[in-house]
Design brief:
18% strand, Rossmann fold, globular, 16 helices, 39% helix, four-stranded parallel β-sheet, alpha/beta, 3 domains, 14 strands
Length: 417
């Protein structure tokens, strides 16, 4: 049986100075030699990831980072890799050695708070020195959990485990549905799964697998078909399904083959809600109306697979957008954790479904775009908008559909005035 996908794990980032004991702490938590431990500062050069089970939370991912106080050209590269970890951290653990707490630790705390990330302050090497009582009192008054450890001896590790459980966001204790809240128990969802060059041989992609599992968990039925068999499959049912979900690339055909009375959407739009903020993506899609020839668009993809000839992000979406706008647009593509700090030069950011990521990294990118006044949306929402089936695809999501109607009405009022 496969382990939990990385995107489903609670991401716990360990941050601090070089030689604060972060690697030793990770080894003590996992009871394994995961990170190399040395008295030499800067031993950890790149983020080290270790998945494990932490009950009652479930699957978690510890990320041991290089010291953010690293120096030199190579050190700056290490620091940049560490800063990328902030974007996907669900709980930040600030590791301060021997009672030390200064402007450096305050800077990490500010970085995490800016991203609205829960924080645990951990004073390691407590056998050598303890923090001032006034400092601990101030941190606790700021609603921060404070833990004392001696990682080399395993002291305080149980306290850290308890702190992680108490600090974990609610969504990791009670995981939200991918699709299970849209299909009543005992009813059926039809999943349209095209098998093309991008489909992994012998497997289904993550959104399809998670949708099937979610339907099974709520005692619903599931039928999986390819796009060419959808109409025949619907004709064979003795009552309509509660929902049809399709790969976004088949939107037009599936919309044509699905009767108007049956709700329909796409896997990408399901994940726009599950991994991001669907209403924010609806607002982003509305910005397509303001695009003009020559505008710059950033296309971001979480996976780093080798693109095929008719790739969805590099070929199909740019083609559909150019046709919709009626002019040339300039597209820039990024993959993986690479995402520019400054996105202000773009008129629109279009993101993939982020199915392999945790939600925190997607929300961080949404926040960055919002702070810089740049619209952001995702693949499925973009495709539905450019193909003219936006309201149909948003039908299962009343809040998102209401957002669209309000923005559309406001735009029409502005035009009249």
């Amino acid at each position: 049986m496969r382990g939990a996908p990385k995107g489903f794990r609670l991401h716990i980032g360990l941050f601090g100075r070089r030689n604060a004991g972060k690697s030793c702490l990770l080894n003590a938590m996992t009871r394994q030699t995961v990170s190399i431990v040395s008295d030499v500062a800067g031993t950890t050069t790149d983020p080290v990831e270790k998945p494990m089970e932490l009950l009652p939370i479930g699957p978690v991912l510890f990320i041991d980072t290089a010291g953010i106080d690293d120096v030199g050209a190579l050190g700056e590269m290490r620091v940049q890799r560490t800063r990328q970890v902030f974007d996907r951290t669900d709980i930040g653990v600030i590791v301060a050695p021997a009672g030390e707490w200064a402007e450096f630790e305050e800077g990490i705390l500010t970085e995490l708070r800016t991203r609205e990330v829960p924080v645990i302050v951990l004073f390691n090497k407590s056998d050598l020195a303890r923090p001032a009582a006034s400092l601990v009192h101030r941190l606790e008054n700021e609603k921060l959990v404070v833990v004392h450890t001696v990682a080399t001896r395993g002291e305080g590790i149980l306290d850290l485990r308890e702190a992680l459980i108490r600090t974990a966001p609610e969504e990791f204790i009670n995981t939200p549905h991918v699709i299970g809240d849209l299909v009543p128990a005992g009813e059926m969802a039809v999943l349209v799964v095209p098998i093309d060059l991008e489909a992994p041989k012998g497997r289904l992609i993550q959104p399809q697998v998670l949708a099937i599992r979610d339907l099974l968990d709520i005692d619903a039925y599931c039928m999986v078909v390819k796009e060419r068999e959808l109409r025949d499959a619907l004709d064979r049912l003795n009552r309509p399904p509660a929902l049809v979900v399709t790969d976004s690339q088949c939107f037009l055909k599936v919309a044509g083959d699905t009767p108007d009375g049956i709700p329909m959407t796409s896997f990408s739009i399901l994940f726009a809600r599950f991994k991001g903020d669907l209403c924010e993506f609806v607002r982003g899609a509305m910005a397509i109306e303001a695009l003009r020839s020559g505008d710059r668009i950033l296309v971001a993809e979480a996976c780093t697979h080798h693109p095929i000839g008719d790739d969805i992000g590099r070929v199909k979406i740019p083609r559909w957008l150019r046709q919709y706008v009626g002019g040339q647009l300039e597209f820039t593509h990024v993959q993986g954790h690479d995402f520019p700090e400054d996105v202000s030069g773009y008129k629109l950011v279009i993101h993939c479904a982020a199915c392999m990521w945790n939600r925190r990294e997607m929300l961080t990118r949404i926040l960055r775009c919002r702070q810089q006044g740049v619209a952001i949306t995702n693949y499925g929402v973009t495709i539905a908008y450019t193909l003219g089936i936006f309201e149909r695809a948003l039908g299962p999501f009343p809040a998102a559909l209401d957002t669209h109607h309000r923005l559309k009405a406001a735009s029409e009022r502005t035009t009249r005035e």
